[in-house]
## 1
Amino acid sequence: MNKNYFEIIRAGVNTTFQDKGRNNLYHIGIPFSGAMDYRNYLLANKLVGNKLDLPVIEFAYQGPLLKYNGDKINIAITGEVIFKLKKRDNEIQGNCYESYLIEDGDEIDILSTNKSVYGYLAISGEFDLKLQWGSCSINTKANIGSNDGKKLENKQEIHISKINLKQEKKKADYLNSKVENIRVIRGTNFDYFSEEGKKIFFEKDFMVSKLSDRMGMRLEGPKIENIVNTNIKSEGLLKGVIQVPADGNPIIMLSDHGTIGGYPKIGVVASVDYDRLVQISPGSKIKFKEIELPDAETLFKLYEMETQNLLSQI
């Protein structure tokens, strides 16, 4: 029996294992999945000295309360997260983007994400997980991935197969930025919508619905009029595609999305804005801004360069 493990006292709202996701399986109906906020996933691994593709614990809204049993290990939490470390008789208010050494009997209490949705917990080592199609990422809609494709549960144990011996204190000077507008490229069915519908899409505010999860973000707001057909022959979908069903309220496909769909597609979220899009909490308002494909490509390259610069400074 492995002696290093976490005991889950409180599992949290939506706590799963995630990594980079799985590639090239759309043809059999399997989406990428993986960490919703990719930059924060990478930063979490870097802060504990891991290889950047190792699994982490992703949580939403309220995170888990974990009791650690075993040898000393470093942990780091990224995102906008309120958490505490309980060490014997001492309680420490934790800071995101900073590594902490925890010991046998210590507890990590992840209270909430602060005005955002997703946070990440990485350890200086490797969780003992089974891969499926080269990834441990959990898709709860399809029961795919490690932990039998299910969320983590109370009283469960999370075993650690390996601990890094080199455990340096690390810190990142990083502030999660907000997006004023979500930049989008026109979708393949853009002309299905009336001129007024297109104008509404780009000029009006939409509110993020509570009916949003890792599969999709439902929006509420002024109705977007379809003048051709509210249903089409099912076509392939991508992460970030914005579908508009018959009720006129957009749905943005997220990391666990279905791979085909029959609603017209008005736009696609530019990849540069995806990490920040998924952190917009229910009840918040968002607005769309149209950009061209070459601009979206340039912006994403710059975002990737910025991410690499952040990682290199840790």
## 2
Amino acid sequence: MERFKRRNIWFVIIIGVIIVSIFTNEIGYEKLISLLDNSNKLLVILAVFFNLLNLAAFAKTWQLLSPAEVSLYKLFKFYMAGTFINNITPTFGTGGEPVKAMLLGKETGTSKSGCFASVVSQRMLNMFPFLTFGSIGIVFLFSKPDIRLEPWELIALVFSTGVGFLAFGLIVYFYIRKDRLTNFVHSSLRFLAPFIGFVRKGFDHLDYAEAVERSIDSFHGGLKDIHKNKHGLLKATLYSFIGWIFDVAAIYAVFLALGAESHIHIGVLILAYTLSMMSGWLPLFMPGGLGIVDGTMAVLFIYGGVPVEIAMLATLLYRLSSYWFNTVIGGYYMWSSLKTAVR
């Protein structure tokens, strides 16, 4: 396991170096240095601060859905440890969710299924504000008469937003219909059984049927307990909205730092941000959407009328203040949690 994580970290670092090299080459080394020298350093620091507020708001959202009393700081640590795993493993951005649930369960002594239900609920809740921001971005974009989308761009826009709403709809549907969730899990196990067999010899999905049933019953019970807490859900939704606002504010602060506010329309910014984050869900082989998110974001900014060098540097600075900053902080908290577990 340790070797696997070390290999993942080196893979992420190598890909990161390649991305920075490509972006630097496109911008031009001298132009890059000039833009950085003339940038507002305080606004760059502000972008990092907004990113921290985004993480704190999401941790607060999780706290309001948690099955047990736990301090916000401890939940922040668990959230960051899970974020680290999400950012270094190619698992649809969900590899860290079991880690969050495990750390919460160990800290509070509550059931694993209840903890996992709170983690999943937080992710479900975050989808609603995220898609709302995407819709707002589309409205702003089409309200600007001088922006004309090519047919392929319009198709990509409709497809990406459609995938997002479909994913959210499926999550809600499986929550409402536990029987459908059970059928889906069993079908997935049957489909994956031959592949799992390569790793675990003699794997038979039927042997796990009863355990799956118990887990789903317990997990769904945890979701129902959260659903009963209407006041907590309302506050959690509010904090989730606040979290996304801080994240958008972080990337806007980067544009302000580069003196590029006149080059970016708010609709283009929100839409480019939303679609690039969605693009990170698709390539299961890239941890945290690394490279895919960066490239998509830069391209969408360029198509939105932002000069190439500004678009690419803004993307680099934003990803540095979010993805890379979060990975380092999360790695520290993950190491700290493992060290505590060993004692």
